[in-house]
Amino acid sequence: MRAYEVLVEDPQISAFFSDMGYRLVAYSDRPDKAFTFVVLNEDTVNAFAAPGGVIALFSGMILTAEDESEIAGVLAHEIAHITQLHLYRTLEKTKAMTIPIALAMLGLVLAGGGSGEAIQSAVIGGSAAIQQAQINFTRQHEAEADRIGIKSLSQAGYDP
User: Fold this and answer.
1) Using CB atoms within 10 A of its CB, is residue 66 exposed (0-12), middle (13-18) or buried (19+)?
2) Do residues 50 and 88 lie in contact, with contact meaning Cβ atoms separated by under 8 Å?
3) Could you tell me the end-to-end alpha-carbon distance of the chain, in angstroms, rounded to an integer?
4) pTM
5) In the chain, what are the domain boundaries?
6) For residues 103-142, b (16+ Cβ closer than 10 Å) or e, as one string?
7) pLDDT digit string (tens) for the chain, length 160 residues
8) What CA–CA distance (Å, rounded) separates 50 from 42?
9) Are 22 and 38 in contact (CB under 8 A)?
């Protein structure tokens, strides 16, 4: 991130969001987990959780927020993604689906006599199954992050 000069390195801004983040972490399922809170200098209204406990908040989110609780709500949501191991769980579920879907694709190809249409249908069907499963995982994880984030937000004294 530093290589692209998008990281906001103002010590006061960094301390403010780190303090806010750790105030929320204290009420999470993993209060002793180490986190790194960074602000990215982008007009985008967004935030994300990354492996290793990194939470990135875009400056556009900060500039459009009406109050501190709105930003805290976003941070609480992203913290929940990490404490609930959403990335890991998605990777594990995707990995677990790979063999059954590959076998189903092989079955379709064999049933179709190995024709080009059978192969194309198998690839499209397998890809669609994986994408649908990932959409379902994402929806479940977003709802879980909302629910857990709101709980942490409230317990930390912010207005949910």
Assistant:
1) exposed
2) no
3) 31
4) 0.74
5) 1-160
6) eebeebbeeeeeeeebeebbeeebeeeeeebeeebeeebe
7) 454 457 788 899 999 999 999 999 999 999 999 999 999 998 889 999 988 899 999 999 999 999 999 999 999 999 999 999 888 777 777 777 777 766 766 666 677 676 667 667 666 766 776 677 666 668 888 899 999 999 999 999 998 8
8) 17
9) no
Dihedral sign from CA coordinates of 89, 91, 94, 99: negative
The span from the CA of 119 to the CA of 109, in Å, is: 5
Cβ 34 vs Cβ 54: under 8 Å: no
Which residues are designated catalytic?
78, 146
**Structure-token pair, residue 120:** 């194309």
